[in-house]
Specification:
mainly alpha, 12 helices, 0% strand, globular, 78% helix
Length: 276
Protein backbone atom coordinates (compact mmCIF):
# COMPACT_ATOMS: atom_id res chain seq x y z
CA UNK A 1 0.00 0.00 0.00
CA UNK A 2 1.28 3.46 -0.92
CA UNK A 3 1.51 5.58 2.23
CA UNK A 4 1.25 9.35 1.75
CA UNK A 5 -0.25 12.24 3.68
CA UNK A 6 -2.81 12.43 0.90
CA UNK A 7 -3.91 8.87 1.66
CA UNK A 8 -3.92 9.44 5.41
CA UNK A 9 -5.63 12.87 5.38
CA UNK A 10 -7.58 13.07 2.07
CA UNK A 11 -9.88 15.85 3.27
CA UNK A 12 -6.95 18.27 3.53
CA UNK A 13 -6.29 18.33 -0.23
CA UNK A 14 -8.13 21.62 -1.01
CA UNK A 15 -6.23 23.35 1.80
CA UNK A 16 -2.91 21.86 0.67
CA UNK A 17 -3.51 22.91 -2.95
CA UNK A 18 -3.77 26.57 -1.93
CA UNK A 19 -1.05 26.56 0.72
CA UNK A 20 1.57 27.94 -1.70
CA UNK A 21 -0.57 31.04 -2.22
CA UNK A 22 -0.52 32.23 1.39
CA UNK A 23 2.17 34.18 3.20
CA UNK A 24 5.09 33.50 3.35
CA UNK A 25 4.91 30.62 0.84
CA UNK A 26 4.38 32.89 -2.18
CA UNK A 27 7.55 34.76 -1.20
CA UNK A 28 9.56 31.59 -0.64
CA UNK A 29 8.50 29.77 -3.82
CA UNK A 30 10.49 31.93 -6.31
CA UNK A 31 13.57 31.42 -4.11
CA UNK A 32 12.86 27.75 -3.44
CA UNK A 33 16.34 26.54 -4.45
CA UNK A 34 18.06 28.86 -1.98
CA UNK A 35 15.85 27.73 0.88
CA UNK A 36 16.39 24.11 -0.14
CA UNK A 37 20.15 24.67 0.16
CA UNK A 38 19.62 26.07 3.67
CA UNK A 39 17.55 23.00 4.53
CA UNK A 40 20.24 20.64 3.25
CA UNK A 41 22.99 22.52 5.08
CA UNK A 42 20.97 22.37 8.30
CA UNK A 43 20.58 18.62 7.87
CA UNK A 44 24.32 18.31 7.23
CA UNK A 45 25.12 20.31 10.39
CA UNK A 46 22.71 18.32 12.56
CA UNK A 47 23.39 14.94 11.01
CA UNK A 48 27.15 15.48 10.86
CA UNK A 49 27.48 16.59 14.48
CA UNK A 50 25.21 13.74 15.60
CA UNK A 51 27.26 11.24 13.59
CA UNK A 52 30.54 12.35 15.16
CA UNK A 53 29.08 12.09 18.66
CA UNK A 54 27.46 8.72 18.03
CA UNK A 55 30.57 7.25 16.45
CA UNK A 56 32.26 8.02 19.74
CA UNK A 57 29.51 6.18 21.61
CA UNK A 58 29.94 3.22 19.27
CA UNK A 59 33.70 3.17 19.93
CA UNK A 60 35.19 4.94 16.93
CA UNK A 61 36.06 8.44 15.78
CA UNK A 62 37.36 10.84 18.44
CA UNK A 63 38.35 8.08 20.86
CA UNK A 64 41.04 10.27 22.43
CA UNK A 65 38.23 12.38 23.92
CA UNK A 66 35.57 11.23 26.36
CA UNK A 67 31.96 11.07 25.11
CA UNK A 68 31.04 14.00 27.37
CA UNK A 69 33.79 16.16 25.84
CA UNK A 70 32.60 15.34 22.33
CA UNK A 71 29.04 16.13 23.40
CA UNK A 72 29.97 19.52 24.84
CA UNK A 73 31.81 20.46 21.66
CA UNK A 74 28.90 19.55 19.37
CA UNK A 75 25.67 20.21 21.26
CA UNK A 76 25.21 23.80 20.02
CA UNK A 77 25.77 22.71 16.43
CA UNK A 78 23.07 20.08 16.90
CA UNK A 79 20.69 22.71 18.28
CA UNK A 80 21.47 25.01 15.35
CA UNK A 81 20.82 22.18 12.90
CA UNK A 82 17.43 21.40 14.45
CA UNK A 83 16.34 25.04 14.29
CA UNK A 84 17.48 25.31 10.66
CA UNK A 85 15.71 22.12 9.63
CA UNK A 86 12.42 23.06 11.26
CA UNK A 87 12.32 26.64 9.98
CA UNK A 88 13.50 25.94 6.43
CA UNK A 89 11.47 22.71 6.25
CA UNK A 90 8.19 24.43 7.13
CA UNK A 91 8.81 27.21 4.62
CA UNK A 92 9.80 25.05 1.65
CA UNK A 93 7.08 22.57 2.61
CA UNK A 94 4.46 25.30 2.31
CA UNK A 95 5.85 26.38 -1.07
CA UNK A 96 5.80 22.82 -2.41
CA UNK A 97 2.95 21.39 -0.37
CA UNK A 98 0.98 19.46 -3.00
CA UNK A 99 4.02 17.52 -4.23
CA UNK A 100 4.96 16.52 -0.69
CA UNK A 101 1.34 15.69 0.14
CA UNK A 102 1.45 12.84 -2.40
CA UNK A 103 4.99 11.61 -1.66
CA UNK A 104 5.72 8.46 0.31
CA UNK A 105 9.37 9.51 0.54
CA UNK A 106 8.27 12.69 2.34
CA UNK A 107 6.43 10.60 4.94
CA UNK A 108 9.63 8.60 5.43
CA UNK A 109 11.66 11.78 5.81
CA UNK A 110 9.31 13.23 8.43
CA UNK A 111 9.23 9.96 10.38
CA UNK A 112 13.02 9.66 10.24
CA UNK A 113 13.50 13.29 11.30
CA UNK A 114 11.21 12.78 14.27
CA UNK A 115 13.02 9.56 15.14
CA UNK A 116 16.37 11.32 14.78
CA UNK A 117 15.39 14.11 17.15
CA UNK A 118 14.04 11.60 19.69
CA UNK A 119 17.17 9.44 19.49
CA UNK A 120 19.56 12.40 19.58
CA UNK A 121 17.94 14.39 22.39
CA UNK A 122 16.36 11.55 24.33
CA UNK A 123 19.06 8.89 24.15
CA UNK A 124 22.46 9.66 22.60
CA UNK A 125 23.01 13.11 24.13
CA UNK A 126 22.15 12.02 27.70
CA UNK A 127 24.31 8.90 27.29
CA UNK A 128 27.22 10.90 25.89
CA UNK A 129 26.84 13.49 28.67
CA UNK A 130 27.07 10.64 31.21
CA UNK A 131 30.17 9.17 29.47
CA UNK A 132 28.31 6.05 28.36
CA UNK A 133 26.02 5.63 31.34
CA UNK A 134 22.53 4.57 30.26
CA UNK A 135 19.64 5.75 32.41
CA UNK A 136 16.13 4.29 32.33
CA UNK A 137 14.86 7.45 30.59
CA UNK A 138 17.53 7.18 27.88
CA UNK A 139 16.71 3.51 27.39
CA UNK A 140 13.00 4.31 27.06
CA UNK A 141 13.55 7.14 24.57
CA UNK A 142 15.85 4.88 22.57
CA UNK A 143 13.10 2.28 22.24
CA UNK A 144 10.64 4.96 21.12
CA UNK A 145 13.03 6.50 18.61
CA UNK A 146 14.30 3.18 17.28
CA UNK A 147 10.74 1.95 16.81
CA UNK A 148 9.83 5.08 14.85
CA UNK A 149 12.97 4.76 12.74
CA UNK A 150 12.27 1.10 11.89
CA UNK A 151 8.73 2.10 10.95
CA UNK A 152 10.14 4.74 8.60
CA UNK A 153 12.37 2.11 6.99
CA UNK A 154 9.34 -0.15 6.50
CA UNK A 155 7.45 2.69 4.83
CA UNK A 156 10.52 3.46 2.68
CA UNK A 157 10.23 -0.06 1.26
CA UNK A 158 6.78 0.82 -0.14
CA UNK A 159 7.90 4.08 -1.80
CA UNK A 160 7.46 3.46 -5.52
CA UNK A 161 10.54 4.61 -7.50
CA UNK A 162 12.13 5.84 -4.26
CA UNK A 163 12.70 2.58 -2.38
CA UNK A 164 16.13 2.09 -4.02
CA UNK A 165 17.14 4.86 -1.64
CA UNK A 166 17.30 2.17 1.05
CA UNK A 167 20.59 1.09 -0.52
CA UNK A 168 22.08 4.36 0.80
CA UNK A 169 21.10 3.32 4.31
CA UNK A 170 22.45 -0.20 3.84
CA UNK A 171 25.79 1.00 2.52
CA UNK A 172 26.10 3.54 5.34
CA UNK A 173 25.49 0.69 7.78
CA UNK A 174 28.11 -1.41 5.97
CA UNK A 175 30.70 1.36 6.30
CA UNK A 176 29.90 1.72 10.00
CA UNK A 177 30.30 -2.00 10.64
CA UNK A 178 33.54 -2.01 8.64
CA UNK A 179 34.86 0.89 10.71
CA UNK A 180 33.86 -0.63 14.04
CA UNK A 181 34.96 -4.21 13.36
CA UNK A 182 38.40 -5.20 14.61
CA UNK A 183 41.04 -7.74 13.59
CA UNK A 184 40.42 -10.60 11.20
CA UNK A 185 36.65 -10.16 11.51
CA UNK A 186 36.97 -6.90 9.58
CA UNK A 187 38.58 -8.68 6.64
CA UNK A 188 35.95 -11.42 6.74
CA UNK A 189 33.17 -8.85 6.73
CA UNK A 190 34.80 -6.89 3.90
CA UNK A 191 35.22 -10.08 1.85
CA UNK A 192 31.59 -11.04 2.30
CA UNK A 193 30.51 -7.51 1.42
CA UNK A 194 32.64 -7.57 -1.73
CA UNK A 195 31.13 -10.90 -2.81
CA UNK A 196 27.61 -9.53 -2.39
CA UNK A 197 28.30 -6.25 -4.22
CA UNK A 198 30.22 -7.83 -7.11
CA UNK A 199 27.66 -10.62 -7.41
CA UNK A 200 24.81 -8.12 -7.62
CA UNK A 201 26.63 -6.13 -10.32
CA UNK A 202 27.27 -9.26 -12.39
CA UNK A 203 23.69 -10.53 -12.08
CA UNK A 204 21.97 -7.22 -12.82
CA UNK A 205 24.36 -6.07 -15.56
CA UNK A 206 25.32 -9.28 -17.34
CA UNK A 207 23.03 -12.21 -16.56
CA UNK A 208 19.73 -10.29 -16.50
CA UNK A 209 19.17 -7.76 -19.32
CA UNK A 210 18.79 -4.13 -18.21
CA UNK A 211 15.24 -3.90 -19.60
CA UNK A 212 14.00 -7.10 -17.95
CA UNK A 213 12.37 -5.42 -14.94
CA UNK A 214 10.24 -8.46 -14.16
CA UNK A 215 13.45 -10.28 -13.19
CA UNK A 216 15.57 -7.35 -12.09
CA UNK A 217 13.21 -6.16 -9.36
CA UNK A 218 13.04 -9.51 -7.53
CA UNK A 219 16.81 -9.94 -7.92
CA UNK A 220 17.49 -6.55 -6.38
CA UNK A 221 15.08 -7.25 -3.52
CA UNK A 222 16.77 -10.54 -2.75
CA UNK A 223 20.15 -8.79 -2.87
CA UNK A 224 18.92 -6.08 -0.49
CA UNK A 225 17.71 -8.73 1.98
CA UNK A 226 21.00 -10.65 1.81
CA UNK A 227 22.98 -7.43 2.26
CA UNK A 228 20.83 -6.40 5.23
CA UNK A 229 21.29 -9.82 6.86
CA UNK A 230 25.06 -9.78 6.37
CA UNK A 231 25.40 -6.25 7.76
CA UNK A 232 23.01 -6.69 10.69
CA UNK A 233 24.53 -10.03 11.63
CA UNK A 234 28.00 -8.54 11.86
CA UNK A 235 26.67 -5.45 13.65
CA UNK A 236 25.03 -7.68 16.28
CA UNK A 237 28.28 -9.62 16.67
CA UNK A 238 30.12 -6.33 17.26
CA UNK A 239 27.59 -5.07 19.79
CA UNK A 240 27.47 -8.38 21.66
CA UNK A 241 31.22 -8.99 21.80
CA UNK A 242 32.58 -9.25 25.37
CA UNK A 243 33.75 -5.87 26.67
CA UNK A 244 34.53 -4.31 30.01
CA UNK A 245 31.49 -2.56 31.47
CA UNK A 246 29.40 -4.86 29.33
CA UNK A 247 25.83 -3.58 29.75
CA UNK A 248 26.56 0.14 29.40
CA UNK A 249 28.99 -0.32 26.50
CA UNK A 250 26.62 -2.55 24.56
CA UNK A 251 23.68 -0.22 24.98
CA UNK A 252 25.62 2.94 24.15
CA UNK A 253 27.06 1.23 21.08
CA UNK A 254 23.58 0.21 19.92
CA UNK A 255 22.34 3.76 20.44
CA UNK A 256 25.30 5.02 18.42
CA UNK A 257 24.49 2.72 15.49
CA UNK A 258 20.80 3.65 15.37
CA UNK A 259 21.36 7.37 15.91
CA UNK A 260 23.66 7.54 12.89
CA UNK A 261 21.52 5.46 10.54
CA UNK A 262 18.38 7.45 11.33
CA UNK A 263 19.97 10.61 9.87
CA UNK A 264 21.14 8.70 6.81
CA UNK A 265 17.55 7.51 6.35
CA UNK A 266 16.20 11.06 6.60
CA UNK A 267 18.75 12.38 4.11
CA UNK A 268 18.19 9.50 1.66
CA UNK A 269 14.40 9.90 1.77
CA UNK A 270 14.72 13.64 1.24
CA UNK A 271 16.84 13.18 -1.87
CA UNK A 272 14.39 10.63 -3.31
CA UNK A 273 11.28 12.76 -2.91
CA UNK A 274 11.53 13.80 -6.57
CA UNK A 275 11.20 10.16 -7.67
CA UNK A 276 8.18 9.30 -5.51
Amino acid sequence: MKITLGEIFPDLRPWVQHLDQVWPAYIIKPQFASWEVLHILSLVVLGGSAIVMNLRLAGAGLVEESPSEVYRGLRRWQDLGVIGIVVSGVLIGMANAERLYDSTAFVVKIMALMAGIVLTYGASRPIARADGGVSLAARTWFLVGAGLWLASVAVFATAVLANPGLFHVLMAAALMVLMLTRGGARWAFAAGLAVLVIGQVIITHSIIPADDLARLDPANKVYACLLALWISGNAIRNVMRPVAGEAADRMSSLVGYASILVWVTAAAAGRWIAFA
